[in-house]
Structure formats: structure tokens, C-alpha cells
Design goal:
The chain has 278 residues and is α/β, with parallel strands linked by helices. It folds into two domains: 28-115, Rossmann fold (3-Layer(aba) Sandwich), CATH 3.40.50; 138-261, NAD(P)-binding Rossmann-like Domain (Rossmann fold), CATH 3.40.50.720. The protein has ten helices and eleven strands. The protein has helices at 6-26, 42-58, 73-85, 104-110, 122-130, 138-149, 169-178, 193-197, 243-246, 261-274; strands spanning 2-3, 32-38, 61-67, 91-94, 158-162, 182-186, 202-205, 222-226, 230-231, 237-238, 250-253. It is globular. 41% of the residues are buried. The model has no long low-confidence stretch (mean pLDDT 96).
């Protein structure tokens, strides 16, 4: 069993991006990410802080808007409109989740697709479906990098994905197809989940249930990627996979924390930089 070290791989990517940013600056190309946070959700605040730190590290600018919980939808949309117009802003990110009175879908659709570094805009999702250029959402793209940089050959492998969300499950399936895997997507209504998972050469778990997947779901020697993140009853961070029960049955596995998590921000930085490469 080999541990896939997301921390190490994300550092490699950020270092590559740092060098790229320095070269782009010599050509007079600069990137600036605008991050908008509405309210003070503690997890969101940590993510925003980490995004700013990553920008600083690779050498791109960041502008942040910290808005109060009761900010109106209209106010938020007008800030997005203004950022869409600004030529110095190359990427726009609205930290999710948003307060209940704001329509997330409307907000995502308002961002200029060429600045949608989260890859959530319907135009970027559509581009992924038909195999055209566009921003790809960061977590699934991070999983692809984890696999490739850990020398996992994806071509021809049976990849099973548990979860069908717009942010992870669906784009993950499309990306694995693009890498020539044979893909099965499972979800809460799937029958015989255990049996299907046992056929996976690569199992990607993004279901949102702490330590749900145990060794009975694993084919011997499979590669297991755990996208989940939770705090258990002892306030300890864990994933969707019961790591201790599963690890000895795998050839490679991601830990939680330190697996997929750090990759999400690395791939966000990748998107921010690619926005100025053309």
C-alpha cells in the first residue's frame, strides 16, 4: 500500500506555477483573483485565508470582498458585474455556500465564464462535456493530477465514482472519460453499491458520509481516492472512507487530511494562471 501524498503533489504544482507566473510577469502578464465571501462561515473563512496565501506564494494578486451575512443578492450581483468589467481582475471566485436568501445558481451564472476559475459556470461545464477548452472545477481536476503524478495509468481502467454532485461527481466522471477510463457513477439510489465498487480498479468516493466505505467495497489492489471531509464525534478529521479498515486492501490510497484537500487550492491557482496564459 502506497500513500498518495496530496500535500507534496500540491506543493510541486504550486512551485511550477510560481515559475510560470514569474515568466508571464516578464511578458507583462499579471493575474489577480477576486474572492467574495458573504457571511462568516468558519470553514469558508479558512478556505478564503488559504486561497489568499496560495496567491501570495505563487505571485498573483488577490482582492477580497468580505460581505456581511445580510448582504442582498442585488448587491452581490452588482459587485460581480463590476469585477467582470475590470480588466485587471482575471479570476472571480464566490465562496460557497451562500446565505439562504441568495440564489447560488444565479450568482454562478453571473460570473464571466472567462473569469470563472471555479469552473462552475454552465459554459465551462458544457465545454468539459463536449471536450472543448474551458475552466475545469478544481477538486476533480486535482484528483486527475493526483492519479497522474502517482503513476496511476487510467487508460482502460474501470473507475467507479460514488457521488453525482455538479461540483465533484459529474465533472469527475467526464474527466475520467477524457482519460480513457471506463466509468460507472453510483449515487444514493444505486442498487448493489458494494458489488459495483468491488469491480473498481480506481474508486473515487465523494458521497458525504463519514467513514462509510469499508474493506467490503474494495477490490484487492484498487486505487482509492477519498474526496470526503468531516469531523467525527471526537472532532477528528476523517473522510468518506474508513481509512484504517481499507488501506491494506489497496495499492494506493489518499489520506484525509492531506490527500485531495490541498489539491483543490493548487488547481484553483492553476486556473488563475491559465486565465492569463493565452
Amino acid at each position: 500500500m502506497e500513500l498518495i501524498d496530496g500535500k507534496k503533489i500540491s506543493e510541486e504544482i504550486k512551485l511550477e506555477l510560481k515559475e510560470k507566473v514569474a515568466k508571464l510577469k516578464e511578458q507583462g502578464k499579471e493575474a489577480t483573483l477576486a474572492v467574495i465571501q458573504v457571511g462568516q462561515d468558519p470553514a469558508s473563512s479558512i478556505y478564503v485565508k488559504n486561497k489568499k496565501k496560495a496567491c501570495e506564494y505563487i505571485g498573483v494578486g488577490s482582492v477580497s470582498y468580505e460581505l456581511s451575512e445580510n448582504t442582498t443578492e442585488e448587491k452581490l450581483l452588482s459587485i460581480i458585474d463590476e469585477l467582470n468589467e475590470r480588466s485587471d481582475i482575471t479570476g472571480i471566485l464566490v465562496q460557497l455556500p451562500l446565505p439562504k436568501h441568495i440564489d447560488e445558481d444565479k450568482v454562478i451564472k453571473r460570473i464571466d465564464p472567462k473569469k470563472d476559475v471555479d469552473g462552475f459556470h454552465v459554459e465551462n461545464v458544457g465545454a468539459l462535456v463536449v471536450g472543448e477548452e474551458g475552466f475545469v472545477s478544481c477538486t476533480p481536476n486535482g484528483v486527475i493530477q493526483l492519479l497522474k503524478r502517482s503513476n496511476v495509468d487510467i487508460t482502460g481502467k474501470h473507475a467507479v465514482i460514488i457521488g453525482r454532485s455538479n461540483i465533484v461527481g459529474k465533472p469527475m466522471a467526464l474527466l475520467m472519460l477524457r482519460e480513457n477510463a471506463t466509468v460507472t457513477v453510483c449515487h444514493s439510489k444505486t442498487k448493489n453499491l458494494k458489488e459495483i465498487c468491488k469491480e473498481a480498479d480506481i474508486l473515487i468516493v465523494a458521497m458525504g458520509k463519514p467513514r462509510f466505505v469499508d474493506h467490503e467495497y474494495i477490490k484487492e489492489g484498487a486505487v482509492v481516492i477519498d474526496v470526503g471531509i468531516h469531523r467525527d464525534e471526537n472532532n477528528k478529521i476523517c473522510g468518506d472512507v474508513n481509512f484504517d479498515d481499507v488501506k491494506e486492501h489497496t495499492s494506493k490510497i489518499t489520506p484525509v487530511p492531506g490527500g485531495v484537500g490541498p489539491m483543490t487550492i493548487a488547481m484553483l491557482m492553476y486556473n488563475v494562471v491559465s486565465a492569463i496564459e493565452d
